[in-house]
Amino acid sequence: MGDLTSRIDPATPPPPPATVPVRRPVEAWLRLMGWGWVLVRYDALAPREITPLLPVWIRWLAHLLHAFAGKEGREGRPGQRLGKAFEHLGPVAIKLGQVLATRADIFGVEFARDLGRLKDALEPFPVEQARREVERSLGRPVESLFTDFGPPVAAASLAQAHPAWLADGRKVAVKVLRPGVERRVAQGLDSMRLAARLAVRFVAPARRLEPSAFVETIARALQLELDMRLEAAAASELKDILDKVREGGGGHMSAPAVVWDGVGKRVLTLEWATGVAMTDPAAVDQPGLDRNGLADNLVRAFLTQALDYGTFHADLHEGNLFCHAPAELTAIDFGIVGRLGHGERRYLAEILWGFLSRDYDRISRVHFEAGYVPPEHSVEAFAQALRAVGEPVIGKQASQVSMGRLLGQLFEITALFDMHLRPELILLQKTMVSVEGVARRLNPDHDLWEAARPVVERWIRRELGPHAQVRDALEEFRDTLKALSRLAQNPPQPRTVVIRETRTPAWMIVSVTLAAAASAAALVLSLWPAIV
Hints:
By secondary structure, the chain is α+β, with helices and mostly antiparallel strands. It is built from 20 helices and eleven strands. The chain has helices spanning 25-41, 56-66, 78-89, 91-100, 104-107, 109-115, 117-120, 127-138, 181-202, 211-225, 228-247, 291-309, 342-356, 360-370, 379-390, 403-416, 426-442, 448-464, 466-489, 506-531; strands spanning 146-149, 154-155, 159-166, 171-177, 253-254, 267-271, 276-277, 311-313, 321-324, 328-331, 337-339. Strands 1, 2, 3, 4 and 6 form a five-stranded antiparallel sheet that branches. Strands 5-10-9-7 form a four-stranded mixed sheet.
């Protein structure tokens, strides 16, 4: 399979996103306090159900907060109350809720199910308003493109989807941005930037999580998601990638085609996705559906996109996935796309392969080579810490692993070795969390590592095996020949170097000597009483 122990050239990580100043600090501060008040009113900041589990010294504060809970905080389960609070707080909070809703293994099935409505079941805006948005964005009447335009079938944080039919009979999905959503996102991001600065200044343990870089990465993704023309381009790109994977016999995920005549800044039209939405409880009960195979295909489709192409769908929760028998997936909503450079892809593959082969020393060295761990730490000590994480997990069924405990251990290890959040990996890590959560929902005993093995092993063979080594050597030889050819065609021109001898003027020498003598005499006179 090739030598995995050879040193890989560390890729220079991309610079962190530029920090954007808080535009309106006073408004941002008031909005932050308003967010806290909303969470208190919904009893979502320190829910009464978990108060007995809190440390004794903090229970009194939780009881104090409960006294300020409103009517909405006294009704429903914790997940329902938090979901309503997030919906009240706006698009940025809803995005967070969508990620939390994929982790039933951490927060509980009931809690995740209650948050699930944030994925695609929010309150829609009227169809008449959607028609006006379509006409304004496309610059023509709705009837000129669609023979029928139906009421919304799904409503998420930024947009809602309408079924429609083209003149040729094709059924399509028309995604329309919510009116005024750009302003709400900008306000939310302004408050998040202020919160990040406060965390950096007053919460020392949070600094290594790079709050400002995290916020700017999310901000950039959200800003791209607010332009449907860019999402259409991403959908087209990912469809081409998924089609290539399927042609190679290794793909079980597809993407609908873009209808470019129906694309504008605030409107996106796609062919209707096949299958049943995975937010529908009946989706996993379809006749002939292989739930474990579906979980495997989800993991493999994501890793294939990330490792083979460096471009992946970065919002893979149930609200953006359809499925049908036997284990086929269709992805929608391409507003957030993650990208990895060749260096990051290589590090990811070697780290995953290291865990699969239980080569903790190699995993440790890759972390140091990539700059994920500061060089002053010990490679051997970090390998020991990785073994403590990996051995209890590798080969175990998902139901036998406590993700909460595992995440706590990982956080402790990253703190012990001064590891900081890497902005270029935020979308990758976010998507891995979502994908594993969806896979666990499909099959509580799903083996993530075995699902990943074929994709990682194929990548290692192709990129680090004997053929790859020969290919890399030939490429280096070719680059050398090109450099020599350029040098022969444009040899360096001789340069005339003029050396001038400069002499220090006599007056300057005399002046410096006299000044030094005067300084020495003054020093001797000041010390004379002590000398005699």
